[in-house]
Amino acid sequence: MSWQAYVDTNLLGTGKISKAAIVGLAGGVWASSPGYTLSADEQKTIVSAFNDPANTQAHGIRLAGQKFFTLSANDRSVYGKKGGDGCVLVKTKQAVLVAEYTAPIQAPEATPVVENLADYLIGVGY
């Protein structure tokens, strides 16, 4: 399966995720939803967010020009909120899954979609 198919089918296709991307830990966007552009600085911040969760917690995370308040951050996952919308970032062995959801979708609906895909990718070596 192509990386784009994971974004289109496993994330956007659930109806719970509105925008998504897969960012390689070594740099570069492997796949993204149409019109969802993460700047080079945003990509670096996304990858480094897991190295210093306390800093991510303190400063939030910026995705496609939108700043999200960080609800929680650890070495695997970052959860953010902006008004009624939110984001879920999950690190795998080689990439970070970046997903945004919009109200009325809530975190308990969107988070398992991203976490489960991350578990699958980790299980197959990615």
UniProtKB/TrEMBL annotation:
SUPFAM superfamilies given in the database record: Profilin (actin-binding protein)
GO (cellular component) term, any one: cytoskeleton
Cited Pfam families: Profilin (PF00235)
InterPro entries for the chain: PFN, PFN_euk, PFN_sf, Profilin_CS
Family: Belongs to the profilin family.
Stated role: Binds to actin and affects the structure of the cytoskeleton. At high concentrations, profilin prevents the polymerization of actin, whereas it enhances it at low concentrations.
Quaternary structure note: Occurs in many kinds of cells as a complex with monomeric actin in a 1:1 ratio.
Entry's Gene Ontology molecular function annotations: actin monomer binding
Protein name (Swiss-Prot/TrEMBL): Profilin
Organism, as annotated: Lentinus tigrinus ALCF2SS1-6
Keywords: Actin-binding, Cytoplasm, Cytoskeleton
Main location: cytoplasm
Compartmental location: Cytoplasm, Cytoskeleton
